[in-house]
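Because discrete structure vocabularies remain unfamiliar, we turn briefly to a single example record, giving the amino acid sequence and backbone structure tokens:
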Amino acid sequence: MKKICLVILCLVMLGITLPGCQGAARKPQTPQNPQGNLDVSASDRRMMANQLSKTAESVPDVQKATVVVSEAGGLPGGGSTKTLVAMVGLTVSSGLSNDANKVSTIKQTVADKLKAADTRINQVLVTTDPTMIKRINDVAAGIIEGKPIQSLEKDINTLTNDLKKQK
């Protein structure tokens, strides 16, 4: 009788512990989304650009801001992580255009505010150069018109490179 109770107790204990072990082994792994590896639609980027533009225009002495949000392909070294870059064209108050220090401070303030406003943005490139602003406006207009982002990709890439050089 004692042997039968002991065998039943062992079977019950075994029955309790086995499913627990198997459950842990079958636990589905959730894919990790490393920072910067974002899948943001063109529509989302347009809305982000609109919101970031309003944020930039809230900075004192900024009269107008045009923002284009683009995905930059992989990281240097062959990584496939995509990052979001905000290209910002600023028009500042006319009295400040000759004060390089003040303009530099405004550009940095805008960059900081935009990074804080949306944590998905990895890099902010700001310019007050009228030629660059026109190029940003042209790309933004194409996006608003609904042109496929692939058709604007060359312009976006050259614009990004030129803004990085200017920085």
Confidence is low (pLDDT under 50) at residues 29-37, 74-79.
